[in-house]
Amino acid sequence: MCGIVGYIGQNDTKEVLLNGLEKLEYRGYDSAGIATLNEEGISLTKVKGRIAALRERVDSSIQATMGIGHTRWATHGVPSITNAHPHQSASGRFTLVHNGVIENYKDLKKEYLQDVSFVSDTDTEVVVQLIDKLYQKHQDTVEAFRETMRLLKGSYAIGLIDVEDHETLYVSKNKSPLLVGLGDGFNLVASDAMATLKETDQYLEIFDKEIVLVNRNFVEVQTLEGSVVERKAYTAEIDASDTEKGTYAHYMLKEIDEQPIVMRNIIKNYQNENNELKLDADIRSAMKAADRIYIIAAGTSYHAGLVGKELIEKLANIPVEVHVASEFSYNTPLLSEKPLFVFISQSGETADSRAVLVKIKEMGHPALTITNVPGSTLSREADHTLHLYAGPEIAVASTKAYTAQIAVLAILAVDTANVKGIQLDFDPLQELAIVATAMETLTGQKEEIEQLARDYFETTRNAFFIGRSGDYNVSLEAALKLKEISYIQAEGFAGGELKHGTIALIEEGTPVIALATQENVNYSIRSNVQEVVARGANAMIISMKGLEEDDDSFVVPHVNELLTPLVSVIPMQLLAYYAALHRGCDVDKPRNLAKSVTVE
Ligand code: M6R
């Protein structure tokens, strides 16, 4: 969702801002803008649409040593130039970018800003007008900024420029991500480190409700009460080259192809010199102590959680509940006596998951986050973190993070079984190595899968994915992948549920994709396929070596039955990719979607 970049230094500000915004494009946005400050004042450029259009529109002759940039994912007000950020106060003194949702913006408008005329429909404009109003009272920008931040309710990451102050970027955050990047003679602000890796690998965390004054030579962190906070910088461990597309047409295809490497990275990082599993002792104790595990996640990460439930229950013998984060906060189930909460999140910034984390921490429960971004909010605020080692995932459609999440959950499950003294005939590191090889075979079969995508999805308006047992979990993920990037209405169903309603939707030619990788339900899922074929469906069976039949459309290599989602999902990801490609969709940046969903 919205992305922020800020810069104060010596160099060409507009290039740093535009480059940074390009790196944040993956988060999802519909409009963008930058504001730069020099002796002549503020120069503001905004567009509806892509950064490429912003780049064309920005005056190339502008030289400035500070500025702020923004990509907006519309919440309050349609995507338009007027609603795009940066926003300015009516006097023109203050210019501001914001990520998040100001919940009390109507109240603030009524109480403080009745005499101000607004130009946009955004909640953000209220913030900048309020800062200006409070400046008139305090005659001091820091005081006006501080008082405004005290009055805001909701989520925000904010960057502010005062046209009269060429030495300071004013920054604050609550619930929305924001970092300060540290340079030599310059400093930066960014929603995530990926935006500014070209400039620095040194970062300073900002905690909720802190105010940060960013000068080109120093950074001062303050509490809302005004006390100065000392904080050490950390090094971002992201290789800038990992965020490049290389020769690939799309990040999604690159990330699908990276999955075998990710499996091997996971094996390497969770193995000690004796080839045994390596996990922190405190994670082991937390897992051992839990009488029930509550997995909290959203979207694809939720689907990985469903596979994780099966792994943990079958291998470690601990009951597991999997909850959609946005539901859990408002409809909290009865909890066991010793719950352990496991948050699964590629980005580590999903606002719905964070809301649950805040709630369960208040209740005093322990939390473990499984994430691809160790310094992220969900990682920092949980007691423990397991890293996915998947490398940056840029495409909005999550692929390698899903398989990494399942692999790490398998390791966690087996490790817990070991700690509990449960004897298993399952070596996860060996099994994951077999999976990595199987993944390589599958990513080498793109032409076959592309042809299936042409045959089944070129003109259809809907599609159904069915499976039983572990395959049902993958069918949910397959449907999400297809719908989010190709806009084909797709649903995943348990094969056995078809007759209880869904079969009414089957018409002549309806694509039904059945997964058949589970021995105990192989016969039943094939019967379900016969039932839909008898009603005109255009069915495809994707099975596993050893369970295949002659007319199956595609057969994935054999892997341990508990890990089949790791391989059966790959043809599903590729089907979605080629369906979207052939339908002319923007594969990496699907409409209306954001990579990092940082508002509830
Ligand atoms: O960063 P997270 O894993 O917490 O994100 C959760 C979902 O927003 C994400 O998985 C989303 O469903 C993806 N677009 C799916 O491809």
From TrEMBL:
What keyword terms does UniProt attach to this protein?
Answer: Aminotransferase, Cytoplasm, Glutamine amidotransferase, Repeat, Transferase
GO molecular function list: carbohydrate derivative binding; glutamine-fructose-6-phosphate transaminase (isomerizing) activity
Q: Where in the cell is it found?
A: Cytoplasm
> Biological process GO terms, please?
carbohydrate metabolic process; fructose 6-phosphate metabolic process; protein N-linked glycosylation; UDP-N-acetylglucosamine metabolic process
Under the cellular component aspect of Gene Ontology, which terms does the record hold? cytosol
Q: Which reaction does it catalyse?
A: D-fructose 6-phosphate + L-glutamine = D-glucosamine 6-phosphate + L-glutamate
Q: What class of enzyme is it?
A: transferase
Q: Which NCBIfam families match?
A: glmS, PRK00331.1
Subunit structure, as described in the record? Homodimer.
Query: PANTHER family this protein is in?
Result: GLUCOSAMINE--FRUCTOSE-6-PHOSPHATE AMINOTRANSFERASE, ISOMERIZING, GLUTAMINE--FRUCTOSE-6-PHOSPHATE TRANSAMINASE (ISOMERIZING)
Q: What is this protein called?
A: Glutamine--fructose-6-phosphate aminotransferase [isomerizing]
**Record organism:** Oceanobacillus polygoni
